[in-house]
Inverse folding.
């Protein structure tokens, strides 16, 4: 390590208890997407104490801090952390009112970003970099509470469900050249690893089948069973699975958010949510069309009415062509922790970092410090130093590596990166995946006797 790298690590270590406390505080005050008001205020307050100029209220709750001021010359690197939690009320530390809990470890991202800000705001460290750094707290990565987000869309508050998608749309990322992101992982998956893998993209579907209620024993012929329509559609989706190519890693999953009210009443209002994922845009479109056909089939066969709202989700993640900046940062910050520079080949989950990576270079890394399954009520923090402090070091060192020596690493990364879409093409794609289809209910004749 050079002298500036050592100073970055020393500053973060000297403030480690403060960083850990911040991570704990966010953990115990989890908030759901587009409602992260307290988290945003704490994040913005930390940056303001460091004298960092901030913008608030971006995509509802996003906070953007500029190390060298807005509009500063040179390349701009964003250190990004996600504000939102998951609705997992069974977690021991879940918010008792909302059921929100940080079972995905986003609190560690935010702690890492503010810890990095502490070090990078040092005058000597700042002077050693050629360019600007943005500390970006972003909302709503988890694509949950879809009814709520769709309501915000209908009110005109947002257009897209994912926070980074919305930030891209409104131009809040237009002045950023490279993004650095992080994700937590369970200790069973390693300690520190490169996150330069591909991942699936997806679209989300909100489905309502409208039937006719009737007594299920006394007069079932008078009813139109919306649950039957939903089950028939699901069976039809199951029959599609052999039509998907293995190389496209298609994943289709669903749950019934509203079903029947009683066993002896024909269901007349059934709500289902589908997520349709695949490795590339063409496969997402293909799988989405096939699911739509299955949903129509359920309605047509039973005579139910259908409303099918398709919301654009996230794009597949594009790996960075040059990861030297983050690789060297992981090694410098690791200490006795083990580092994996290979990481996963492909992840079948999805993240709105995929959208960012389609427009600009994205460097990602993972740190552990957690035990239990991610997205599960049993997840807990077991090593605060690794989860929060090492994360802060890697964030800060990656930014420094990109912008030191006149920004050599940053320029090399930009030269080797080829965007999948321009911003205009991105918005065009997202709008093309936003649709609403309705079919009217076609009730059967009521036969007496």
């Amino acid at each position: 390590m050079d002298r500036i790298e050592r100073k970055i690590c020393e500053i973060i270590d000297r403030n480690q208890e403060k960083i850990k406390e911040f991570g704990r505080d966010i953990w115990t005050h989890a908030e759901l997407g587009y409602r992260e008001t307290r988290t945003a205020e704490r994040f913005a307050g930390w940056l303001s104490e460091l004298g960092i100029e901030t913008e608030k209220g971006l995509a509802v709750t996003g906070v953007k801090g500029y190390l060298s001021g807005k509009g500063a010359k040179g390349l701009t690197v964003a250190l990004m952390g996600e504000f939102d939690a998951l609705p997992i009320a069974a977690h021991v530390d879940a918010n008792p009112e909302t059921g929100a809990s940080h079972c995905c470890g986003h609190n560690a991202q935010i702690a890492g970003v503010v810890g990095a800000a502490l070090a990078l705001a040092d005058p000597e460290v700042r002077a050693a970099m050629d360019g600007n750094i943005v500390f970006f707290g972003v909302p709503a990565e988890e694509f949950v509470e879809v009814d709520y987000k769709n309501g915000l869309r209908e009110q005109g508050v947002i257009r897209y469900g994912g926070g980074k998608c919305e930030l891209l749309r409104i131009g809040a990322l237009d002045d950023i050249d490279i993004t650095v992101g992080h994700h937590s992982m369970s200790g069973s998956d390693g300690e520190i690893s490169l996150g330069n893998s591909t991942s699936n993209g997806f679209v989300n579907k909100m489905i309502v089948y409208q039937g006719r209620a009737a007594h299920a024993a006394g007069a079932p012929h008078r009813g139109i069973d919306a649950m039957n329509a939903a089950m028939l559609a699901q069976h039809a989706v199951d029959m599609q699975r052999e039509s998907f190519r293995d190389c496209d890693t298609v994943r289709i999953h669903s749950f019934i958010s509203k079903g029947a009210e009683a066993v002896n009443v024909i269901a007349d209002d059934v709500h289902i949510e589908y997520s349709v994922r695949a490795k590339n845009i063409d496969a997402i479109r293909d799988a989405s069309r096939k699911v739509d056909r299955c949903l129509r089939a359920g309605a047509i066969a039973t005579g139910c009415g259908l409303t099918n709202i398709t919301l654009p989700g996230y794009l597949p993640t594009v790996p960075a062509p040059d990861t030297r900046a983050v690789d060297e940062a992981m090694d410098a910050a690791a200490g006795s922790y083990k580092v994996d520079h290979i990481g996963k080949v492909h992840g079948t989950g999805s993240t709105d970092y995929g959208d960012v990576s389609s427009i600009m270079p994205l460097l990602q890394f993972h740190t552990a410090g957690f035990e239990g399954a991610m997205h599960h009520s049993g997840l807990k923090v077991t090593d605060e130093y690794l989860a929060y402090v090492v994360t802060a070091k890697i964030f800060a060192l990656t930014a420094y590596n990109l912008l030191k020596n006149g920004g050599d690493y940053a320029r090399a990364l930009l030269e080797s990166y080829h965007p999948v879409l321009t911003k205009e093409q991105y918005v065009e794609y997202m709008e093309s995946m936003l649709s609403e289809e309705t079919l009217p209910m076609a009730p059967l004749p009521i036969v007496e006797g």
Summary: The radius of gyration is 24 Å. Residues 281-302 form the longest helix (22 residues).
